[in-house]
C-alpha cells in the first residue's frame, strides 16, 4: 500500500489517518524531517494555517516540505492545508509562510461570518459517483489560478478544489464525512507517481 503521511503539527490529523486507511493507504503521522523522508505522499490537514506555519518553522519542517513538494511528492491540502499549498495568500498574518506548490492565490476565511460553517454538495471533476458532501469550516476559496492549475470544483461561483500536477487542494474537509472518494483519488495519485 502507498505510504501516506499526515502532517501532524496541528489540525485534524486523526480524521485524515482514518480516511486514508479506509482508502487503502498505509497512513502515518509526520512531525519530523526523518518521518517526511519515509512517506511517498502527504496530506496537510485543516486547522489554523497561521499556527501551522509557525509550528512548521519551529519543527524545522518548512524547508523540507518545500523541497519534497518542489521535487514532485504528491500532496493534498484540505482547508488550512490548501492555504499552506498556495503560492500566495491574500492578507496573510504577519510572518505567515506557506509551502507553496500550487500556482494560486487563496483568500482565508473567504466565505465570511454569516456563513462560517456549512455543508454543500460539491461536484468534483475526476471523482465519479455524484457530488461529495463538502464540509466548509471558516474555509478559504481560491481567488485566482495560474495557467497550469486545473479547477476541479466550484461552489457559489468560487473555486474550492484544484490540482496542479501532483498537488491537490480542497477548501472543504472530506475527512469529516464517511465518504472516502477524495482520499481514494489522492491515494491513486500517489500510486501513479511511483
Ligand atoms: N480559517 C482557517 C485558516 O485560516 C482554516 C480553517 C480550517 O482549516 N477549517 O487557517
From TrEMBL:
> Which gene holds the coding sequence for this protein?
pdxT
Catalytic residues? 79, 173, 175
Q: What is this protein called?
A: Pyridoxal 5'-phosphate synthase subunit PdxT
Enzyme Commission (EC) number? 4.3.3.6, 3.5.1.2
Reactions the enzyme catalyzes: L-glutamine + H2O = L-glutamate + NH4(+); aldehydo-D-ribose 5-phosphate + D-glyceraldehyde 3-phosphate + L-glutamine = pyridoxal 5'-phosphate + L-glutamate + phosphate + 3 H2O + H(+)
Pathway recorded for this protein: Cofactor biosynthesis; pyridoxal 5'-phosphate biosynthesis
Instruction: Give the top-rank taxon of the lineage listed in the UniProt record for this protein.
Output: Bacteria
Q: Which Pfam families match?
A: SNO
GO BP terms, alphabetized: L-glutamine catabolic process; pyridoxal phosphate biosynthetic process; pyridoxine metabolic process
Gene Ontology CC annotations of this record: cytosol; glutaminase complex
Instruction: Detail which positions bind L-glutamine.
Output: 47-49, 108, 137-138
Q: Name one GO molecular function term.
A: pyridoxal 5'-phosphate synthase (glutamine hydrolysing) activity
The organism named in the record is: Streptomyces paludis
Instruction: Supply the alphabetized keyword list.
Output: Glutamine amidotransferase, Hydrolase, Lyase, Pyridoxal phosphate
Q: Which HAMAP family match?
A: PdxT (MF_01615)
Task: State the CDD domains in the record.
Answer: GATase1_PB (cd01749)
Q: How does it assemble?
A: In the presence of PdxS, forms a dodecamer of heterodimers. Only shows activity in the heterodimer.
Q: What does this protein do?
A: Catalyzes the hydrolysis of glutamine to glutamate and ammonia as part of the biosynthesis of pyridoxal 5'-phosphate. The resulting ammonia molecule is channeled to the active site of PdxS.
> InterPro entries under this entry?
Class_I_gatase-like (IPR029062), PdxT/SNO (IPR002161), PdxT/SNO_CS (IPR021196)
Q: Where is the signal peptide?
A: none
What the record says about family reads: Belongs to the glutaminase PdxT/SNO family.
